[in-house]
Amino acid sequence: MGLDQQVVAALPELGHGLLMTLVLTVLASLVSVVMGQLGCFLQLRRAWIWRAIGRFYVSVMRGTPAIVQLFVVFFTLPRLGLGGQPMLAAVIAIGLNSGAYVAEILRVNRSLVTRGQLEASRTLGLSRLLTWWYVINPQVMRASLPMLVNEFTILLKTTPLASVVALTELTYAGQIVIARTYEATQVLLLVAAGYLLIAMPLIAAARRLEAKRRLV
């Protein structure tokens, strides 16, 4: 059985939703990586105040619902003169939420860096920040890649939350089309196919990385 004509006519609308989901996923992933590295770096500092800030960030992001975080960001932006920016709010909120999990992934893999490497870095006169950037971070990121890909797949499946702030991503676009065509099954199957279109390359990349790690 082919697609209903009304559903076919709505394909550009669903395509736009798919594009918004892809953009949101990419931008939020970038925020996630940056905040994850920062959160990990702070938790590894000797000064208790920096460790406390890092742990507070991770605890708050992991301990509160992502939808609440999204509302907080969305209703805070107008106070900064950035009202009416649902994409910006979604990127910040979802990126910050994912960043806390990335920070924990990186922190766990921090043990791969030996004390000898850290002592060699101090001997060369590298600061803690430069040691992190040139010695610790490359090794930790390489070891964490499979888990990071998995986290970004989870991030992708979090993007429908953006519909609550009126961002017309793929799921919201699907809901709009369903309300107009009453073809829920066909539309939802297309929506699911759209998410798979984004997720499958990530899943394939994770499997390849896992296979390479087993060979090392």
What does this structure look like?
- It is found in: Cell inner membrane; Cell membrane.
- By secondary structure, the protein is mainly alpha-helical.
- Helices cover 80% and strands 0% of the residues.
- The protein has helices at 5-9, 11-43, 48-63, 66-76, 86-109, 115-123, 128-158, 170-181, 184-215.
- The chain starts with a helix and ends with a helix.
Keywords:
mainly alpha; Amino acid ABC transporter permease; transmembrane helix; MetI-like; membrane; AA_ABC_transptr_permease_3TM; single chain; 216 residues; 9 helices
Contiguous uncertain segments of 5+ residues: none
DSSP E strands, number:
0
Proportion of residues in β-strands: under 5%
Number of helices: 9
Shape: elongated
**Main β-sheet description:** none
- Helix vs. strand class: mainly alpha
Distance between the termini: 49 Å
* Overall pLDDT confidence: 86
Subcellular location: Cell inner membrane; Cell membrane
Function: Part of the binding-protein-dependent transport system for glutamine; probably responsible for the translocation of the substrate across the membrane.
Transmembrane segments: 20-44, 56-75, 87-106, 148-167, 187-206
Protein name: Amino acid ABC transporter permease
